[in-house]
Specification:
The complex is a heterodimer of chains A (386) and B (259). By secondary structure, chain A is an alpha/beta fold. Chain A is 45% helix and 18% strand. In chain A, helix 4 packs across helix 9 and helix 13 crosses helix 14. The chains are: A alpha/beta (386), B alpha/beta (259). The structure holds pyridoxal-5'-phosphate (PLP). Pyridoxal-5'-phosphate (PLP) binds next to helix 5, helix 10 and helix 14 of chain A.
């Protein structure tokens, strides 16, 4: 029995999760739950997905041992290279799964939200591949700081709408995508980009990202003869983290999810309900959702997926947070020591490793390199000066 | 099901029996002058008022109500301040509150129900709390005598509607279209179709809301339904013309649905 089993019939992980959506969407969520269960247990669907992950997305992604940086930090540092997937991040695993499923359900259009633009690009890519229409909602702040990805989505034939309400970041993009889905639910599939939202999304998206953890476990044993002592990943909604955690949750491996200091929902540990789920959520004394503040558009989110709240509440995983300044240092550090420019999101994971290395001397540390940093180069040029 | 109805449902059933169509305007609480707008709407022939407690992330609302919510929040409105101000309203018709579930969840079910009761509110609408998640709130609301209005949507299969109707108190909110609140050029065909399906299975008063945009559309919806909830059209008038414009609009709709 794994600790990461199916959620309860109500979509709960412990006291987190659920399905807090407008009545209009309840039948669609139920239909999706049934369709996913059916597809996931269908060997033909699984083989189709596996084939496309191998021949299109580039799986399996490899492990890279970082000798230079590992020696410098006094640890054995290994990266899971999700940055080398097609479209440049882990997001493609989930999107190909959902797009295949949407097709199987007869949907002709995908709706997606995006923060950094990686999930939007992955969705636009899958839509192009499978001949579907795609509309991506993106906060106006993120449209400005992730210009390159906006243009990529357009090149791929998707429509991108800038969202000007609220904090004009990921949270508001989710709101607008949900509003679209409420109006178009009969023909559209909401391709949600992380392990969040109403049941079955947190569970379904986790299953589509399990491949990261399953591969990484086998690869770690092959490379190091054992599972790593520590597994580290960044956490926005938490999809890349849950994916890699799922391979090690039943081992003795320490699991660390790293949040930005300005979006540290788990540290605050206050349950709330937004975007269809009950989970830890940054909110004020009246329950108004607070705006996250992060240099990384992909982590600029005031909540976290419900299974992470559960893992935190039972003490199975820990969720420290790092500052923008630490992230900027880590971003440059990996580039200079290993020749790998990381996405700002996973630079959070590295920032924590750098900070915690003195207490991890001699340990094996596996970090999920969830994406590559190309999209962040223009923004970092502003931050660091040309 | 209970056979003793709350204040709003009792009044609505009596008015329906007397041949009156029910009109429930929605107003965003906390906007400057909102209490005067409630009074104007009541004087112009509203049968109840739905007071919106603004939430940071209103996923069922279109641009007009989003804007009003954001303005009210920027002006410092909180659930506590709005309920405090509601206490002074003595308009002779039932008052309901509409808010998103995190407002309720954050306060705590029992505490929120008590706060409503203390403010003279008789009913509550929570558009992101569907039947399957409504249990704990309904227990607290029932105990406090707060009527929980349930929403029914055009996407529901036939099998679902009786279960939603059975849990509805006050009235049953028949969602007029696939989409969020906001004015539309015409009443969606889904509006009358769903109201007809609901009327066939329940004797709880059925009111159409979302996308009922003007007096003529209200009249069309009332050919099948027991009444209408009007949101964005009312709030837009509040933003553009204040309480007087709200009163004039409610009077116009009242007149149109009274023939
Ligand atoms: C490279 C990368 N990593 C991580 C994330 C954060 O998402 P999650 O926490 O779901 O993995 C994003 C989101 O945009 C991303 O682009």
């Amino acid at each position: 029995m794994t600790l990461m089993a199916e959620p309860s019939a109500e979509g709960r992980f412990g006291e987190f999760g659920g399905r807090f959506v407008p009545e209009t969407l309840v039948p669609a969520c139920q239909e999706l739950e049934t369709a996913f269960a059916d597809a996931w247990s269908d060997p033909v669907f699984r083989a189709d997905l596996d084939h496309i992950l191998r021949t299109y997305a580039g799986r399996p992604s490899m492990l890279t041992e970082c000798k230079n940086l590992g020696d410098q930090l006094g640890i054995r540092l290994v990266l899971k290279r999700e940055d080398l997937n097609h479209t440049g991040s882990h997001k493609i695993n989930n999107v190909l799964g959902q797009a295949l499923l949407a097709k199987r359900m007869g949907k002709k259009r995908l709706v997606a939200e995006t923060g950094a633009g990686q999930h939007g690009v992955a969705s636009a890519t899958a839509a192009a591949l499978m001949g579907m229409e795609c509309k991506v909602y993106m906060g106006a702040v993120d449209v400005a700081r992730q210009e390159l990805n906006v243009f990529r989505m357009k090149l791929l034939g998707s429509e991108v709408e800038a969202v000007h309400s609220g904090s004009r970041t990921l949270k508001d993009a989710v709101n607008e995508a949900m509003r679209d889905w409420v109006a178009t639910v009969e023909t559209s599939h909401y391709c949600l980009g992380s392990v969040m939202g109403p049941h079955p999304y947190p569970y379904m998206v986790r299953q589509f990202h399990r491949v990261i953890g399953d591969e990484a476990r086998a690869q770690s044993i092959e490379l190091m003869g054992d599972v790593p002592d520590v597994v580290v990943a960044c956490v926005g909604g938490g999809s890349n983290a849950i994916g890699i955690f799922s391979g090690f949750v039943d081992d003795r491996t320490r699991l660390v999810g790293v949040e930005p200091a300005g979006g540290a929902a788990v540290t605050r540990a206050q349950p709330g309900v937004v975007h269809g789920m009950r989970s830890y959520l940054m909110q004020d004394e009246y329950g108004q959702v607070q705006e996250a503040q992060s240099i990384s558009a992909g982590l600029d989110y005031p909540g976290v997926g419900p299974e992470h709240s559960y893992l935190a509440s039972i003490g199975r995983a820990e969720y420290p947070n790092v500052t923008d300044a630490e992230v900027i240092d880590a971003f440059q550090l990996l580039a200079r020591t290993e020749g790998i420019i990381p996405a700002l999101e996973c630079a959070h994971a590295l920032a924590w490793i750098v900070r915690a290395a003195p207490e991890m001397q001699g340990q094996t540390v596996l970090m999920n390199l969830s994406g590559r940093g190309d999209k962040d180069v223009a923004q970092m040029m502003e931050v660091l000066g040309k | 099901m209970s056979d003793t109805f709350g204040r709003m449902e009792t009044e609505f059933r009596a008015k329906r029996a007397a041949g009156r169509k029910l009109l429930v305007p929605y107003l965003t609480g906390g906007l400057a002058g909102w209490q005067d707008a409630v009074r104007a709407a009541a004087a112009a022939g509203a049968d109840a008022i739905e007071i919106g407690i603004p939430f940071s992330d209103p996923v069922m609302d279109g641009p007009v109500i989003q804007q009003a919510s954001q303005m009210a929040l920027e002006q410092g409105a909180t659930p506590v301040s709005i309920l405090q101000e509601a206490r002074d309203l003595d308009v002779g018709i039932p008052l309901a509150v509409m808010t998103y579930y995190n407002t309720v969840h954050h306060a705590g079910h029992e505490r929120f129900a008590a706060q409503l009761l203390g403010a003279g509110i008789v009913a509550c609408i929570v558009p992101d709390l569907p039947l399957e998640e409504s249990g704990p709130w309904c227990v607290a609301a029932d105990a406090a005598g707060i009527e929980t209005v349930m929403l029914a949507a055009p996407t529901a299969p036939d099998e679902r509607l009786p279960r939603v109707a059975a849990r509805a108190r006050g009235f049953l909110y028949s969602v007029g279209l696939l989409g969020v609140t906001g004015e539309r050029a015409a009443l969606a065909s889904t509006a009358s179709a769903l109201a007809r399906r609901l009327k066939a299975i329940t004797d709880v008063p059925v009111l159409v809301g979302v996308g009922v945009s003007n007096a003529a559309q209200a009249r069309e919806a009332c050919e099948v339904a027991d009444g209408v909830v009007m949101g964005a059209s009312v709030v837009r008038r509040m933003l553009e013309g204040g309480p007087d414009a709200v009163g004039a609009f409610v009077a116009e709709v009242r007149e149109e649905i009274s023939h």
